[in-house]
UniProtKB/TrEMBL annotation:
TPR repeats lie at residues 28-61, 62-95, 96-129, 232-265, 266-299, 542-575, 610-643, 713-746. Residues 35-154 form the Cytochrome c-type biogenesis protein H TPR domain. Pfam families: TPR_16 (PF13432), TPR_19 (PF14559), TPR_8 (PF13181), TPR_CcmH_CycH (PF23914). This is Tetratricopeptide (TPR) domain protein. It comes from Desulforapulum autotrophicum (strain ATCC 43914 / DSM 3382 / VKM B-1955 / HRM2). Keywords: TPR repeat.
Length: 761
């Protein structure tokens, strides 16, 4: 190669080398300038990219790390911002800004010793650094050294009178010391530093509200609106103020103005929706939620809020669809899965809900809400011991969880663990003294443990809490009836009837009291009055006719009794009691054959009627012709597979006299589905559970039955048998003795006496 050409190539290479070095530096500067411009334009993500590109070219530059830290803070990424400022300190140990930022992080993380170390480093470099002095004052305040903190804050304000944070911090100390005039003066100074700034004025508003100077607070908020007339957030704050003052029209106007000012922002719509939701303007709330979702269709937080609103408003299908959409978007999204489980519980799909809740529990074993809903599922599945354990754990994890305390109180009450029920109700009343349900459980628990004065005081509290609710009056009437104070009881029961004359428990207790006092004419008059009231309600008519029939039977007016029982069946063929009553009358009159012929004749005329088969089954069962009874019950169920009276009686027969317990359980559940509130059905289902060894489930059903028919000896007997199998001899003795006290000759009384004799010997 010619020497001249070689020299030219060397010169070109040197030029490229020098030019290349300059290009890296220029690129770095370009990235920094670009990042700063993006930061100024509030495009923080783009700014972050530019600063990271600059660091690729110069990874040890503390200036760029500082810019990146500031940007990451704007992006809400404090963890990486902390790392960036740590890099600044590494490459520039005396960088005061970075040291102050790191001290702030340590204060937030409650690592005060490390924070102090950084602050003292800054103050050694710059003793008058107001940012470091302010952080030091913060630490002193946390350490309760408010006097030294005050001195530091005053020093900051002397050097920098417009230091808003110092003015506000000193004001808080003055408030703590109850030096309110000085506190207010400092807050006013903070506002005067920048009259358009929102936060200082809000601090002043908070102070004025605390001092109950609502007019002055409103004036400050209106001033904030005037200074920031296009700011939707200020309107929301004003609306919140009016809402707390129960000035709903002004609150609504403020929220709607916020929507008008920021029609493409989600927050005003969500705030307005929440307002409408709380004030029961449901259509407006739904409209606002939907508009918020239209702005951000993929915002899962908005979807969650809307779905919960729909669920609360019983728009279950819409809520379910939105939950499915969320889970498609994020299959593991916990809030959506939780809401799905709640929807399943509301639809009584307990097994599916429980599986989902168990998965949620594995992910977070300390979520009390998950355990509460598990308890609800297990109650629905008749897994009562597991339900109690789950709800007790929920209460343990969250002692302030009112709903869990209430559910646990209910569980204990139904198990007749009255002291435990009362204790849980008392916890609720500590949290919310006006909770009606807790007050009811507490008073009834006192009554069941013989604490009459406390029970009476509790029922009077119920009446005071809600004078329009008949439940308190009924319970007071029940207590006075038990004490045989019939006149007082009648007064309370009549007040309950005046509020709702369709309350069967009130009517039944009045009827029982009149019978106990031998006021039979008054009892019949009450029945006739109630029949007139209930003429369009066949289920209630059936019960009233049955009760009046029993009244006639007690008076030995058998024909009138039978007529009443037939009217009961005519009103509601699914009602169990009159069938057995008619069968017992037929046997008592030794007129069994005539009754059988009567029902067989009915079947000849219309073989597709289940009721005659039911009557024949009842007669044969009362006559102990169990095979014939079973055949007729089965025939009734062939005609109508969901005929509850036959399903119930056949279930009881199979449980009592065969080993077909699974079939008995299926039939008992059919009856329970059709007649969920019938105490006879509850007794049958409870007895079937007992026979299958499901003692916890049995106790629950039998106790529910006794709630409605407390004087039924057979139910007490069944409950005693169940307690004995559970190993609770004391409760077994109590129930068996109660059964014999009510009737020494019920079906099973000999067995009850034999058990008691064995236990006591």
């Amino acid at each position: 190669m010619p020497q001249k050409l070689k020299s030219i190539l060397i010169i070109i290479a040197i030029i490229f080398l020098v030019t290349g070095c300059k290009t890296d530096q220029e690129k770095k500067i370009s990235h920094i300038e670009g990042g700063e411009q993006y930061f100024s334009d509030k495009e923080y993500k783009k700014a972050e990219i530019e600063f990271r590109n600059a660091l690729q070219l110069s990874p040890d530059d503390p200036q760029v790390w500082s810019l990146l830290g500031k940007t990451l803070m704007k992006l809400g990424n404090p963890r990486e911002a902390f790392q960036a400022y740590t890099k600044v300190e590494t490459h520039d140990p005396d960088n005061k800004d970075a040291l102050v930022k790191l001290a702030s992080f340590f204060i937030l993380g409650k690592d005060l010793e490390k924070a102090k170390e950084k602050i003292e480093h800054v103050l050694k470099l710059d003793p008058d650094n107001t940012d470091a002095l302010f952080l030091k004052a913060q630490i002193l305040t946390q350490e309760k050294d408010v006097d030294t903190a005050s001195t530091l804050l005053e020093r900051i304000i002397d050097k920098k009178p417009d230091h808003i944070n110092a003015l506000q911090a000193l004001a808080r100390i003055k408030m703590f010391k109850q030096e309110f005039e000085q506190a207010e003066a400092l807050l006013v100074k903070a506002v005067d530093v920048d009259t358009a700034a929102i936060q200082p004025r809000l601090a002043l508003v908070t102070f004025l509200i605390a001092k109950k100077r609502f007019k002055d607070a409103e004036a400050q908020l209106l001033a904030a609106v005037e200074k920031n007339s296009e700011n939707s957030d200020v309107r929301i704050i004003l609306g919140n103020f009016y809402f707390r003052k129960r000035n709903n029209p002004s609150a609504e106007a403020a929220y709607l103005k916020a929507v008008e000012l920021a029609p493409k922002a989600m927050k005003p719509y969500m705030t307005a929706a929440g307002f409408y939701d709380i004030t029961n303007s449901r259509d407006k709330a739904l409209d606002m939620y939907q508009k918020a979702l239209a702005i951000q269709p993929d915002n899962i937080a908005v979807k969650t809020t809307l779905a919960r609103f729909q669920y609360k408003e019983q728009q279950v299908d819409a809520a379910e669809a939105l939950v499915a959409e969320m889970l498609k978007q994020r299959p593991k999204f916990r809030q959506a899965r939780m809401l799905k489980s709640e929807i399943l519980v509301s639809k009584k799909q307990f097994s599916q809900a429980l599986m989902l809740l168990q998965d949620l529990e594995k992910e977070d074993p300390k979520d009390a809400r998950v355990l509460y809903f598990q308890g609800l599922c297990q109650i629905g599945l008749q897994e009562n011991d597991m339900a109690r354990a789950a709800v007790a754990r929920a209460v343990e994890l969250n002692p302030g969880y009112l709903k869990a305390h209430l559910l646990l109180a209910d569980i204990y009450f139904h198990e007749r663990s009255f002291d435990l029920a009362q204790a849980q109700a008392a916890e609720v009343l500590k949290l919310n003294p006006s909770n009606y349900r807790a007050a009811m459980i507490s008073a009834k628990s006192h009554m069941n443990t013989g604490k009459i004065q406390k029970a009476e005081a509790g029922f009077k509290t119920l009446i005071a809490l809600d004078p329009e609710n008949p439940a308190g009056y009924y319970q007071m009437g029940f207590l006075k009836s038990a004490l045989k104070q019939y006149d007082v009881a009648e007064s309370y029961l009549n007040q309950a009837m005046d509020m709702n004359n369709m309350l069967l428990d009130v009517f039944t207790l009045l009827l029982k009291n009149y019978t106990n006092q031998n006021k039979l004419d008054t009892a019949h008059a009450l029945c006739q009055k109630q029949l007139e009231r209930a003429k369009d309600k066949p289920q209630i008519l059936a019960i009233i006719n049955y009760l009046e029939g029993s009244l006639y039977l007690a008076q030995k007016e058998t024909n009138k009794a039978k007529d009443a029982y037939y009217r009961a069946i005519e009103a509601n063929p699914d009602y169990l009691e009159p069938y057995g009553a008619i069968a017992r009358i037929a046997l008592a009159e030794q007129d069994r054959e005539k009754a059988v012929i009567q029902y067989l004749t009915l079947l000849e005329k219309n073989p597709n009627l289940p009721a005659p088969h039911m009557m024949l089954g009842s007669i044969y069962e009362t006559d102990k012709s169990f095979d014939k009874a079973e055949a007729h019950y089965r025939k009734a169920l062939e005609i109508n597979p969901e005929y509850a009276p036959a399903a119930n009686n056949l279930a009881y027969h199979l449980a009592e006299r065969t080993d077909k317990f699974d079939q008995a359980l299926a039939l008992a559940r059919i009856a329970k589905k059709k007649l969920p509130n019938d105490p006879g059905v509850m007794d049958t289902l409870g007895y079937v559970y007992y026979k299958k060894g499901l003692y916890g489930n049995a106790v629950s059903e039998l106790l529910d039955s006794l709630e409605k028919i407390p004087d039924a000896p057979v139910v007490h007997y069944h409950l005693g048998l169940t307690y004995l199998k559970k190993g609770d001899k004391a409760l077994a003795v109590t129930q068996l003795e109660k059964a014999l006290e009510l009737n020494k000759d019920f079906d099973g009384s000999d067995h009850a006496m034999a058990i008691l004799k064995k236990i006591k010997n």
